[in-house]
Design a protein that fits this description.
One of its GO terms (molecular function) is heme binding. Its cofactor is heme. Belongs to the cytochrome P450 family. By secondary structure, the protein is an alpha+beta fold. The radius of gyration is 24 Å and the shape is globular. The protein has helices at residues 5-34, 50-55, 58-68, 88-97, 109-115, 142-148, 155-177, 185-202, 208-211, 214-223, 235-262, 270-276, 287-318, 320-335, 345-348, 352-364, 441-458; strands spanning 73-78, 81-86, 103-105, 182-184, 370-375, 379-381, 384-386, 391-395, 459-463, 470-471, 477-478, 483-488. Strand 10 (470-471) and strand 11 (477-478) form a beta hairpin. It contains 17 helices and twelve strands.
């Protein structure tokens, strides 16, 4: 008797799923017999709870499981990894205090694939860290090490670039908004962010060649946390194509930069450092590796800064009283400057209210939802054991809108950061914490404040669609780009 082919496939799939379920069940039971694992569920065979994690809002995904299993820790399986999610301010403190003791950095496999094209395809694990070059014994990720060590993100380096941040924001506001009554905030925020990155990280004075790839950077940002299905139409496929396009342009920039360096051009950017730096054997970094690493540096600060600028424009546009306070602060500062004089380091310390507004924007729309770590050695937390090799995920969503830590958490209220009203320790961590706190925190602060200074000096605005839908969870995006009505001042 002939058996229908599709029926045979269906039966085969059911059988495979059944076998996998039995295998996973037995293995999990075996683990549980030895140690008290965190409560929770690994979800479906193979994919675990990846779909719920990627396509459900982070605060919902985490919040539901905190209520169901434990407010301190729960287990899940996402992006192919058994993962313990550590929650709340105590969880943040525990994680940040045990970097490189219990945990090390971990990149999800999609991220490894996108930024490590120079490595052997058979190797998906991160390479061992090179010998430390300073008194700091902590190994660092490739990109973080590249930008920390030469001091590019230290105050003295940033203060030299601050004037460029000021002039660039002013220049791009004029180029894209001058003479217009209606504009979109999100596209300009992305252009400003990429232009600053090109000038600061790459030393490129004609950043249009990178800025025109803005859509590719969007695709990469989404693809970093996606299902690794590399077929046309998928998020990961688009991210791969985008990475290839950006990599091609970066390789051209690297070749040009090498020629400029050979002719004695100054080296004030991270790209130049990556080109000339050598390992302990005297070997320089290959161009393909430089391209991937510098792409990682740019992407790391791309969506975070652009998203914060965009939602700041939304909240300020919807709250005229807050706008007036920001403008008063910025105009007082502007009045103390000579005509044509650019912002200086001391000026940024006077923008206290403006920074409070930025902080509140990041609380309601976190620039970083969370990150992964790999467990170096088995540990116990909140009475539960997490085995070596598991991944740990921390997320700001366990505290940012929790009424236990923030009064009226849904209200946009910059005054909550006034002196004496600051959030309790480890409840507000938009840039992470501990040794692995985001190295670009100060860069992001200055870039956003420089934009705020210029935009409120020249414009007042209204949000045309206060109920505009926000799409995306790992990268929140106003569906229409946040249309605004401008009023020139």
């Amino acid at each position: 008797m002939e058996v229908d082919f599709s029926l045979a496939i269906s039966i085969g799939l059911v059988f495979i799923s059944f076998v996998l379920s039995i295998f996973l069940f037995r293995r999990n039971k075996s683990d549980e017999g030895v140690k008290q694992l965190p409560p929770g569920s690994f979800g479906w065979p193979i994919i675990g709870e990846t779909m719920e994690f990627l396509f459900g809002k982070p605060e919902v995904f985490v919040g539901e499981r905190m209520k169901k299993y434990s407010p301190d820790i729960f287990k899940t399986k996402i992006l192919g990894e058994k993962t313990a999610v550590i929650c709340g301010p105590n969880g943040h403190k525990f994680l940040f205090s045990n970097e490189q003791k219990l945990f090390t950095a971990f990149r999800p496999h999609p991220m490894q694939h996108l930024f490590r094209s120079y490595q052997s395809k058979s190797s998906s694990a991160p390479p061992p860290p090179p010998p430390p070059e300073s008194s700091d014994p902590r190994p660092k990720s490739d990109e973080t090490k590249a930008i920390r060590q030469p001091g590019f993100l230290k105050p003295e380096a940033l203060s030299r670039f601050l004037g460029r941040m000021d002039s660039t924001s002013n220049e791009l506001l004029k180029a894209h908004w001058a003479g217009k009554e209606e504009v979109k905030a999100y596209p300009l925020a992305k252009i400003i962010t990429l232009t600053l990155s090109c000038r600061f990280f790459l030393g490129v004075e004609n950043p249009e060649r990178i800025a025109q790839l803005v859509d590719h950077f969007d695709d990469i940002t989404l693809g970093m946390h996606s299902i690794m299905l590399n077929i046309p139409g998928t998020i990961f496929y688009r991210a791969n194509k985008a990475a290839a396009a950006i990599r091609k342009v970066l390789l051209e920039v690297i070749k040009e930069k090498k020629i400029a360096i050979s002719k004695g051009a100054p080296m004030h950017d991270i790209l130049s450092h990556m080109i000339v730096v050598t390992d302990p054997t005297g070997k320089s970094m290959p161009e393909a590796e430089i391209a991937d690493k510098i792409m990682g540096v740019i992407v790391a600060g791309y969506s975070t800064v652009a998203t914060t600028i965009t939602f700041l424009m939304k909240y300020v546009g919807e709250n005229p009283d807050i706008y007036e306070k920001i403008r008063a602060e910025q105009m007082e500062l502007a009045a103390s400057k000579k005509p044509g004089e650019l912002l200086e380091w001391e000026d940024m310390q006077k923008m206290k209210y403006s920074w409070n507004v930025i902080c509140e924007t990041m609380r309601l729309n976190p620039p970083l939802q969370g990150t992964f770590r790999e467990v170096l050695t088995e540990f116990t937390y909140a009475g539960y054991t997490v085995p070596k090799g598991w991944k740990v995920y921390w997320t700001v969503s366990t505290t940012n809108t929790n009424p236990t830590y923030f009064k009226n958490p849904e209200k946009f209220d910059p005054s909550r950061y006034d002196e004496g009203e600051a959030p309790a320790p480890y409840t507000y961590v938009p840039f992470g914490g501990g040794p692995r706190m985001c190295p670009g925190k100060e860069y992001a602060r200055l870039a956003i404040l420089a934009f705020v200074h210029n935009v409120v000096k020249n414009y007042k605005w209204e949000v045309l669609d206060p109920n505009e839908k926000v799409t995306g969870d790992m990268m929140p995006t106003p569906e229409k780009g946040l249309p605004l009505r401008l009023h020139v001042l």
